Request: fold
Amino acid sequence: MKKQLCFFLALIGLATSAQAADLERGKSLHNENCTHCHISMMGGDGSAIYTRENRRIESLDALRKQVNRCKDSLGASWPPDQIDDVVFYLNQTYYKFEE
Ligand code: HEC
Reply:
C-alpha cells in the first residue's frame, strides 16, 4: 500500500514539474529574491537593469545563464522549474526574446 502511494505521489510530482513555466510564480520568486541588489545598483524598483541601454543579455540562453549566475550569488539552490519560472517572467515582462 505504502509503495503504491509513493508511486502515485511521484507521478503527481512529475506531472506538476512538467507544467509550463508559471508567470505569477516567477514574478513572486523574482520580487522576493532578486530585487535588492538591482535596486541598490539602479534605484527605483531595480527593473531598469533589464532595460538599460547597455544591457548584457541578448538571447534567451544568455538570460537563463545570467539568472543562474545571479541565483548562485544569492546562495539559493533553486530547482530548475523555479529558474524556468523566473526566466519566463523576465522574458515576458522585459526581454521578449523569441523562444
Ligand atoms: C548579489 C547581488 C545580486 C542579486 C541577489 C541578484 N542579482 Fe542580478 N545582477 C547583479 C549584478 C551585479 C548584475 C550586473 C552584472 C553586469 O552588469 O555584469 C546583475 C544583472 C542581472 C541581469 C542582466 C541584466 C542585463 O544587463 O540585461 C539579470 C537578468 C539578472 N541580474 C537577474 C537576476 C535574478 C533573476 C536574480 C534572482 C535570482 C538576481 N538577478 C539577483 C546582482 C545581483
